[in-house]
Write a structure and sequence with these properties.
The chain is an alpha/beta fold and 202 residues long. It has one domain (3-198): Vaccinia Virus protein VP39 (Rossmann fold, 3-Layer(aba) Sandwich). The protein is built from seven helices and seven strands, in the order H-H-H-E-E-H-E-E-H-E-H-H-E-E. The chain has helices at 3-12, 14-23, 27-34, 68-81, 117-127, 145-162, 170-176, and strands at residues 40-44, 60-65, 84-89, 102-108, 128-139, 180-187, 192-198. It has a seven-stranded mixed β-sheet, with helices on both faces. Helix 2 runs parallel beside helix 4 (68-81). The longest helix has 18 residues, at 145-162. The radius of gyration is 16 Å and the shape is globular. It starts with a helix and ends with a strand. The relative contact order is 0.15.
Length: 202
């Protein structure tokens, strides 16, 4: 799927994302993960701003998304949550920031959509300060045989309709990247992963 078509798809989904934000979907997972955020935060694929309500109030967020409709919703969320945020419209995989720019880097439910997720993680490794952290909430391929098979069967249709992949092996992607994983929590037949990682600067 072309990037332009993918952007249009997510533009159209922005109202659905906003409804999920207001319902505080994934509240338990987001609050568990994002309470660790600190300092200057880079959030990639911010969507409709579902994470803003769960950040500590003293962080400063640089929020990036390729969808203008998502960003307009995210701006409302930041204002309602009292979070200081700067918004950047950009293809996440083409992002460029100086090395060691951020104390915390956050991605929630976005690694299903990238063409080169390992390469992107390596970029985040560069953008993160040596003593910083990378916080991820991602969905991926289950370790349960039945669920695994179902995800693979649904993958082509789901990708065409929603624009993301159901069959990404998140832990394999992390292992092949430069980042160092320190803690993982898994939920729903190991389809949901909460990950606390740090950059590897060597």
């Amino acid at each position: 799927m072309s990037k332009e078509k993918l952007i249009r798809k997510f533009d159209k989904q922005s109202n659905l994302y906003e409804k999920r934000r207001k319902k505080q979907s994934e509240r338990k997972w987001r609050s568990t993960l994002l309470g660790s955020a600190k300092g200057d935060v880079l959030e990639i694929a911010v969507g409709a701003g579902a994470n803003f309500n769960f950040y500590p109030k003293d962080v400063k967020v640089t929020a990036v998304d390729f969808s203008s409709e998502m960003l307009s919703k995210a701006k409302v969320s930041a204002a309602e949550s009292g979070i200081m945020a700067t918004f950047v419209q950009s293809d996440i995989e083409l992002l460029s920031f100086p090395e060691n720019s951020f104390d915390t880097i956050v991605s929630t439910l976005s690694f299903c959509g990238y063409d080169n997720p390992i390469q992107l993680l390596d970029s985040l490794n560069t953008f993160c300060k040596p003593d910083g952290q990378i916080l991820l909430l991602e969905h991926g391929l289950s370790s349960n045989r039945w669920m695994n098979r179902t995800q693979k069967l649904m993958e082509p249709l789901f990708n065409r309709l929603v624009g993301c992949h159901l069959d990404r092996d998140i832990m394999d992607i992390l292992e092949k990247s430069k980042v160092r994983v320190h803690r993982v929590e898994r939920y729903i037949y190991n389809t949901i992963h909460l990950v606390w990682a740090t950059p590897n600067k060597h």
